[in-house]
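Troubleshooting log. The previous run stalled partway through. Resubmitting the same two chains, unchanged.
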Amino acid sequence: QALLVQSGAELKKPGTSVKVSCQASGYTFSSFPLHWVRQAPGQGLAWMGLIDPSSGDTTYAQSFRGRITVTRDKSTSTVYMELDSLRSEDTAFYYCARDPSNHATWFDPWGQGTLVTVSS
Amino acid sequence: DIQMTQSPSSLSASVGDRVTITCRASESVNTFLNWYRQKPGKAPQLLIFAATSLQRGVPSRFTGSGLGTHFTLTISGLQPEDFATYYCQQGSRTPYTFGQGTKVEI
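Second attempt completed without errors. Output:
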């Protein structure tokens, strides 16, 4: 059974960076894209980007382009999302999610979420 | 970007009720439309993919329908665990966008 486990909560100062990890298990890591979705407290869901773990190819949402970097480590079946130049509006839960479809894109399962708080 | 609009934004219901949530896309997404349930403090859970397909392990009281720009999620016989927020999501093209959510309350 596929499982995604994320790193713990982070408290960051404005202008700094955060790197969140997502370790996959229970399936062949390289077979499915992994996505990042964020949710500000009490708000909706916003797609941030994806990585193809096989090739390392990435696609990012325009609103995060230039600040986001998604990488993977095939040896540990782990994907990383780094967000730079943090501001208070980046305070949110960050989720990784697997896309098990074949070019249709849905998300299952999801990681448990990582709360990133940006505050001086 | 494809805009996804859900209605209503919230609704009140009782255990056993039949509930319908609507999702409209700003342009056709064919059947690339998915539904999620998010319980408070938890990650979203996939309910329906490709507009009408029930995810394995999800109860049959959840049904999805629609094509193109107009989709619905119906819950037949609301259970206590269904009091949550529901999101639609288009998987047609990037950026993959979500509706704003529908909160189902007692």
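Takeaways: Chain B has a mean pLDDT of 97. The first strand of chain B starts at residue 4 and ends at 7.
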